[in-house]
Amino acid sequence: MPAANVLVKYNKDKENDRRVYASFRRQQRNVYFLYIIASLMLCSLFGWFLHEQYHQEMSSAKSHSAARANTIGEWTKSVFSQSSQALLSISELIDIQGMPDDEAAISMAVELENRHHYAPLIQEIGLLDSQGRVLASSGSNRYRGRDLSNTAFFTALSSNQQQEIVTPLYWSSEDQAYYLHHALRLNDQQGNFIGVALARVAPQIFVDTISQMQFQSGESIALIDPTLRLIARTPQLDERTQTGTQLGGPITQGILNNGQSSWSNVRGLSLDHHERLFWLQRVDNYPIWVVAGMEMEQLLAEWRQRAAILLGMLIVIVLLGGWGVRHYVNRLKLELLLQQRLDEREQARAQAQAGEAYLQALIHSIQDLIFVFNTQNQITYMHVLHKEMTQEGEDSLVGKHYAEVFPGALVKRFDDVFEQVRWYRQVVTIEYPLKVRRGELFFQAVVSPLENTDGNFSGTLLVARDITEAKQSEVELSIAAAAFQAHLGIIITDAHGLILKANPMFTLITGYTQAEVIGHDPHIFSSEHQGTDFYRRVWRSVKKHGRWEGEVWNQRKNGEAFPGWVAVSSITNADNQLTHYVATVIDISERKSAEQEIHQLAFYDSVTGLANRRLFMDRLEVALKEVIRYRSYGALLFIDIDHFKQINDVYGHPIGDRLLKGVANQLTQQLRESDTLACLGGDEFAVLVPSLNADPVKAAQLAERIAHKLMAVIRRTSALINHSINISASIGITLLSDSNIDQEGYLQQADMALSQAKVKGRDTLCFFDPAIQAALLTSIHLERELRQALALKQWQLYYQPQVDVDGKVTGVEALLRWQHPERGLVSPGEFIPLLESTGLISEVGEWVLEKACYQLTRWEQSPEFCHLTVSVNLSPLQFQDADFVARIKAIFERTQAPLQRLKLEVTESLFVEARDNARDKMLKLKALGVRFSLDDFGTGYSSLMYLTQLPLDQLKIDQSFVQRVLTSSANAAIVESTIVLAESLGLDVIAEGVETQAQKAWLLEHGCRAYQGDLSGRPVPVDELEEQLTATQH
């Protein structure tokens, strides 16, 4: 009987059985449904009851914790109420009496102590002045003078951000303890800040108070500050509950994210690792929170016991109901079991017949190769539709092992595959080449395990498919895709030039998507940079030679023109007929920009855009040739912006750059096209005027006129950049002639002339003078020797005594001397300016200071000299160094000198510019114990304003006034005024250059009691000084 008829008959016989079985399934579903509904209702009832019980327990616990927190909060508020009253009473006292001075500080301490008696919960009350120093306190006097200006509460009060502050926990490094501070701003009648009233509260008072309270088992109370540090807690555990312990975890998020004054949550606290119910409540407006906790284990103990009993009852009821339902359903199953077994056997037989017939028909239509192997890997069945795809005939392969069929290299791969399929029951896909009757083909094989009815491994199924053509197509497609996705922009057109395809790189370069260009002519990318004749030549080359490449200016979608390197090729078919064009394009914008930038960087200044030194030298060389050829005079001008470095330092480099650009633009507008304006670096400009006049006098007059015009333009430049900066320029000029001087020679002449203009006071011009050149060469030679002086140990330190009224030596001034091997002692007036102009002053100045500090350290050990002070001169240029203070401190640390006997002498020129910067550095050094003396007072920028602002200890009257005090009434008046001024400012005064007894007597009569000069001793080396002092004492 055909398989299809067997199945039809079987289906008809089974129709009634399906109806019976369907009835059974309906009954079974109904029973299960009723059982589930009843069980869910019972579970819901039990769950609702337990849920209500849980919320009652939690509500009761929250109320209890809230009450606890409120009690502690009220008591904590009373502590700060006491401190607030004490601070207000201090404020009222200050309003009446004013801020006490140092003498009244003791009586103020008594007043504070009296108020402390009325505030027993406060540990100590104090009073701070406007500088943050402790004036008085109610407790020990050891805190007097302590500087609290760097504390956060003092900063907030002094800047008027707040009037009253209660701080978080504050760690006192001196007491090694935490405190809470309650601070109140104190103002005078005009509302100006005059100090701070401060109350200090010890956290121990909170610890003692809450420790005395009675708590339930599992209950805890804690106080924390805004930074989540622990103030107090009970019960106390170990160091985890010490004051200052940092808390974290979920409570942190709760406080930071919840802006309420009270808050509760169930969580695990990191202190004792117990789950608790927490109530968090802020103490009024103070930055303190009370945390009341109930241990969940204790809180829910009874509730959990009741829940366990109810849960047990529920489980028993549900299990009994399930057992009854299962018994009823099993009885229904047994009625159908026998009939079901008979039906299954008949159905299996019919399906086997139908399946076999269907499989045979299917196999004979399959193009793939099919092999079945037994457990010994021998072929038991094979299906090969085309015999040329095998190595041998079909009959000869059955019964053979695959090792007898495949080559050796392939056998090893199949060994691994068959093992994997057999032992891991996996389906494995492999690809392999095999040489068959048709030649070498590529196959893809799917190897699957076969199992018998018991589920045991019974063999292997291998289905192989010829994928040779697919492999070849895949390789060709991958090559084409790789080429099309290259970094080149590619478009393909038809034979008529209409675009068929464009790659992503082309879209990236031009901005056009593929959809926007398909069907269009490539002329849509043309720009106006190249005309129609250019494109005609391109297409003639393509048609003649089959390709063309070169630089083309195309246009992007946004209208922007860009340079591209384009290659066009024609594609023909087998009949040599044109089918397509392929064009590639590379965006060379970056390369063109880089070439332009390289040229700009090579020949032009990056800030001003003017010609740089390299281009300027080229044009100077051409100009010199023209001067010789036409026998006329030209001019070379060097321009330097006066005080440009200070402008940069004060206003910043962006303003400095804008100023240079403004100067460059203004100068350019004043010059001829034949003239060259260059920026040689920084603020140095050069102007080349190639032809002026054949007469040197007239040429010089014209050059001077040009220079004056340029100086006037520069003075007006500051207004153009919207800054009130008064600027000027110095200009050096040299004339170009037909002499034998080369380019470098003329540059040197202009530079020397510029230097001379600066010496004359700046904002002026100067022509080159050969005499100046000779002096400059001498200066250069001296500078070279100066640089070697320190290494060759040619520097020496001399000391000149400073004496009091009785002639007793109280100190010395360290003076630098240069012992030249050929010239002997060189005058300081000759080499000090050179040290400053060359920048060597910082290095030499630090050597002098270090040498003097070591001398102070040695004298510290000698009873004869331990009282001497040493004065050391500092140059204003040293203060300009950014790390000046750090380097001076390093000298002090190395030498360990007694700084209270060290005086640093500065001159008035230090305060002409950047006075605040100099003052800050002086204050930092003065904080170390160093004293400052103002040298040469009266000769420079004398101003009462800076005298009152600077941390000076002494004024030194310049010797130019002292030596004419007896012969000039004007000098006498200046000296007398200086002495009175110093006395009124509380400064010491010393006169230098005292050479006669008459001068000393006059100074003493007018109040000067300290002297320095040849009368008391000339500068001598330290050994000679010590001998003189020893002889004088004995």
TrEMBL record:
Enzyme class: hydrolase
Domain GGDEF positions: 632-770
GO biological process: cellular response to nitric oxide
Pfam families assigned to the protein according to its UniProt record, in alphabetical order: dCache_1, EAL, GGDEF, PAS_4, PAS_9
InterPro entries: Biofilm_reg_signaling, dCache_1, EAL_dom, EAL_sf, GGDEF_dom, Nucleotide_cyclase, PAC, PAS
Transmembrane segments: 32-50, 307-325
Cofactor: Mg(2+)
Positions of the PAS domain: 490-519
Gene Ontology, cellular component aspect: plasma membrane
PROSITE patterns cross-referenced by the UniProt entry: EAL (PS50883), GGDEF (PS50887), PAC (PS50113), PAS (PS50112)
Gene3D superfamilies listed in its UniProt record: 3.30.70.270, EAL domain (3.20.20.450), PAS domain (3.30.450.20)
Matches recorded under SUPFAM superfamilies: EAL domain-like, Nucleotide cyclase, PYP-like sensor domain (PAS domain)
Keyword terms, alphabetized: c-di-GMP, Cell membrane, Membrane, Transmembrane, Transmembrane helix
Residue span(s) of domain PAC: 428-479, 548-600
Domain EAL as annotated: residue spans: 779-1033
Membrane topology type: Multi-pass membrane protein
Domain of life: Bacteria
GO MF assignments: cyclic-guanylate-specific phosphodiesterase activity
Catalytic activity: 3',3'-c-di-GMP + H2O = 5'-phosphoguanylyl(3'->5')guanosine + H(+)
PANTHER family, per the entry: BIOFILM ARCHITECTURE MAINTENANCE PROTEIN MBAA, DIGUANYLATE CYCLASE DGCP
Protein name: cyclic-guanylate-specific phosphodiesterase
Species for this entry: Vreelandella populi
